[in-house]
């Protein structure tokens, strides 16, 4: 197979880690690849809320390309990979590496999955971080472990849904249920048969009902403590925090003894010191791992119509300021996506 002709430079959004300023660069270098990674032509990429605050905790260079959820077409495949040139793929780039807000990106073979049938490339770019975070929070043994002692729900090669309702009888609370991660968590928990309650503003209740939630606590009217007070049976086997702040603290009042409480918000490990914790609660902060095999399984749920994706809005990369501002409002319902390849 002949090596494709590549441009010498590419268009990319650049985040300057010294000045914290975003800009659009027209002559950025192409990403480096190695035998374990694919070079992909980026179609779409999604913003993760708060990602520009990660610089102090990374080894980013002064000029860094942001955005790590990506969909695109393989131009040069990794060595000995099941994925081939020309395939439509998606995945989550580990955030220590250069992101995908550019015309080309490098995606590890282990991070890669095929784009599910029936999904647009913009929708595909909205899935990886949110879907993988929700999946790992709910089902990994060190986290929610909702399916224990069974395997989580999955779709086999014949397209059959196996292990549904493995969490029947369990109750979970999702703090921030209407955001991108929370909405995935609602749907995956319902696949497992759990009873799902989420916090959100009243304006998001109809959206959450549409993805299967059982109850919505409108945090503008009712606090978690008010929901729980005097009713021990309302406490939860698992609390999943997607928002932090006061809700993170209130979540401790809602988790049962011997339950689990997991957060994706930094600072979680310090917050329990401010409240009286129930006994024997398995708890912790975590950052998702990018695993193509798990993403492939999430894609099968999507193909069968069991899980819906969430795109808030789609932007050209020239509108990078407006897109990041939209994400920063905290009111985006779903992911804010850049479509890079408008000509396709």
From TrEMBL:
<feature type="domain" description="Enoyl reductase (ER)">
    <location>
        <begin position="19"/>
        <end position="338"/>
    </location>
</feature>
<dbReference type="InterPro" id="IPR020843">
    <property type="entry name" value="ER"/>
</dbReference>
<dbReference type="GO" id="GO:0005739">
    <property type="term" value="C:mitochondrion"/>
</dbReference>
<dbReference type="InterPro" id="IPR050700">
    <property type="entry name" value="YIM1/Zinc_Alcohol_DH_Fams"/>
</dbReference>
<dbReference type="Pfam" id="PF13602">
    <property type="entry name" value="ADH_zinc_N_2"/>
</dbReference>
<dbReference type="GO" id="GO:0016491">
    <property type="term" value="F:oxidoreductase activity"/>
</dbReference>
<dbReference type="InterPro" id="IPR036291">
    <property type="entry name" value="NAD(P)-bd_dom_sf"/>
</dbReference>
<dbReference type="InterPro" id="IPR011032">
    <property type="entry name" value="GroES-like_sf"/>
</dbReference>
<protein>
    <submittedName>
        <fullName>NAD(P)-binding protein</fullName>
    </submittedName>
</protein>
């Amino acid at each position: 197979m002949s090596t494709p002709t590549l441009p010498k430079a590419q268009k990319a959004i650049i985040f300057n880690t010294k000045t914290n300023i975003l800009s659009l660069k027209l002559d950025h270098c192409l990403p480096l690849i190695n035998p374990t990674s694919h070079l992909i032509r980026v179609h779409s990429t999604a913003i993760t809320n708060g990602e520009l605050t990660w610089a102090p905790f990374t080894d980013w260079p002064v000029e860094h390309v942001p955005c790590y959820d990506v969909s695109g077409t393989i131009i040069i495949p990794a060595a000995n990979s099941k994925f081939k040139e020309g395939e439509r793929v998606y995945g989550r780039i580990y955030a220590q590496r250069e992101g995908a807000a550019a015309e080309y990106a490098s995606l590890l073979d282990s991070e890669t999955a095929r784009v599910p049938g029936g999904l647009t490339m913009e929708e595909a770019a909205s899935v990886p971080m949110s879907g993988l975070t929700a999946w790992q929070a709910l089902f990994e043994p060190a986290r929610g472990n909702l399916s224990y002692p069974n395997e989580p729900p999955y779709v086999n090669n014949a397209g059959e849904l196996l292990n549904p309702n493995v969490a029947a009888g369990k109750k979970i609370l999702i703090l921030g249920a209407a955001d991108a991660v929370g909405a995935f968590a609602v749907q995956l928990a319902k696949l497992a048969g759990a009873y799902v309650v989420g916090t959100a503003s009243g304006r998001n209740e109809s959206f959450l009902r549409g993805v299967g939630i059982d109850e919505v606590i409108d945090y503008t009217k009712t606090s978690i403590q008010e929901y729980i007070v005097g009713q021990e049976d309302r406490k939860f086997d698992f609390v999943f925090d997607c928002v932090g702040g006061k809700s993170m603290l209130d979540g401790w009042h809602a988790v049962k003894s011997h339950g689990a409480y997991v957060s994706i918000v930094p600072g979680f490990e310090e917050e329990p010191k401010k409240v009286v914790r129930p006994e024997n609660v398995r708890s912790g902060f975590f950052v998702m791992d990018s695993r193509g095999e798990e993403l492939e399984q999430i894609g099968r749920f999507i193909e069968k119509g069991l899980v819906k994706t969430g795109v808030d809005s789609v932007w050209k990369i020239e509108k990078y300021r407006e897109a990041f501002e939209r994400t920063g409002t905290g009111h985006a319902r779903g992911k804010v996506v850049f479509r890079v390849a408008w000509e396709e």
